[in-house]
Amino acid sequence: MKGATINRVTYEGVAEFIHLGTLISNDNSVEKEIQRRILAGNRTYFAAISLFRSRPLSRATKIILYKTLIRPVVSCGAEAWMLTKKEEQAPIIFERKIYSRIYGPKYENGEWKSRTNRELEEMSKGENILKWTKGQRIS
Predict the structure, then answer these.
(1) Among 68-72, 100-104, 123-127, which stretch is predicted with the lowest mean pLDDT?
(2) DSSP string for 50-73
(3) Dist. CA 122–CA 113, nearest whole Å
(4) Cβ 96 vs Cβ 120: under 8 Å
């Protein structure tokens, strides 16, 4: 990357850097930042895996844990993101995976089946990480 010279001092140019915990790139793409945030969310989930696997904790408590521990990690800085439809899907898919782990499979007609996306959406009452993030924006 070409640098800049100011007052006879040459500064190195970079394609991307992290500023205040957010990845800034020279092409204004947020795709890598979204992936970094989802990876951080996964690390947070697995750091608290004993809580999410705990039988004494109710599903409602686990949802509260997700909303207070993991969701803020994934959506940190997202209020400023300008997302394409494709980029909007990544955090939603991540959230569905967490809900799927919390709710687990269902027993139906003598066999265990994974819950559908529609069922998970109904269980979360239509609220998702994208709607929540948009609600955090200052108008």
Answers:
(1) 123-127
(2) HHHT-SSS-HHHHHHHIIIIIHHH
(3) 17
(4) yes
Angle between helices 85-103 and 129-136 (to 10 degrees): 120
d(CA 25, CA 135): 25
- Residues 6 or more apart whose CB falls under 8 angstroms from that of 85 comprise none
Alpha-carbon 135 to chain mean position:
15
Q: Measure the CA–CA gap between 111 and 41, rounded to whole angstroms.
A: 31
Q: Please name every residue paired with 113 in a beta bridge, in sequence order, or none if there are none.
A: 106
pLDDT score, position 9: 87
Q: What is the mean pLDDT of residues 60-84?
A: 89
Residue in the structure block whose two tokens are 């970079």: 14
DSSP 105-129: -EEETTEEEPPPHHHHHHHTTT--H
- Give the pLDDT confidence score for residue 17 in this predicted structure: 79
Beta strand 111-113 with 106-108: parallel, antiparallel or unpaired?
Answer: antiparallel
Token reading at 6: 């100011």
pLDDT at 61: 96
What pLDDT is stored for residue 6 in this prediction? 85
Contact 2, 14 (CB under 8 A): no
